[in-house]
Amino acid sequence: MEKLKIGKIVGTHGLKGELKIRSNSDFADKRFKKGNEIIISYQNQDLVYKIITSRIHKGNYLVSFRDNQDINLVEKYIGSFVYGYKDDELLDADEYFYTDLIGMQVVSTEGTKIGPVTSIYDNTRHDILNIDHNGKNVAIPYVDAFIKDVDVEKKIIVVMLIKGLIDED
Description:
Blueprint: E1 3-13, E2 18-23, H1 28-31, E3 37-42, E4 45-57, E5 60-65, H2 71-74, E6 81-85, E7 105-108, E8 113-122, E9 127-133, E10 136-141, E11 147-151, E12 156-159
Parallel strand pairs: 7-12
Antiparallel strand pairs: 1-2, 1-6, 2-5, 3-4, 3-6, 4-5, 7-8, 8-9, 9-10, 11-12
């Protein structure tokens, strides 16, 4: 089953093995729920843990796992990324995971082919699509003003271009 990055371990809390996780998941409440499994990527290994406690504290999730309820057992994970399994049941009918956009073809509203999405990043205000346009990187904000349609089945993203968004030679 495919896994998705859902957060990063940024610290510990207290002495009883709680890990402080900064989530980047749109489904954090479901992902970090007691009883769910998460995967910690540590020293090139995927370690699967079942959450036994979970709560929010100052914008981060504090979670703990059975047999790891001591700060000395978990502090080694600080800086590690946390993954969850890609679960389409988390999505509504018209929703998709951002990772599904990687590789999709981007075209303008006029039908001009721009190129494939190579990556997506968050610039804190909104997400940015990086697109390979004839060997050059084009960054398009993932906001309604630019993104007009996403067809996951056809793997096409339609964007509204404005002057200067793409440098033409």
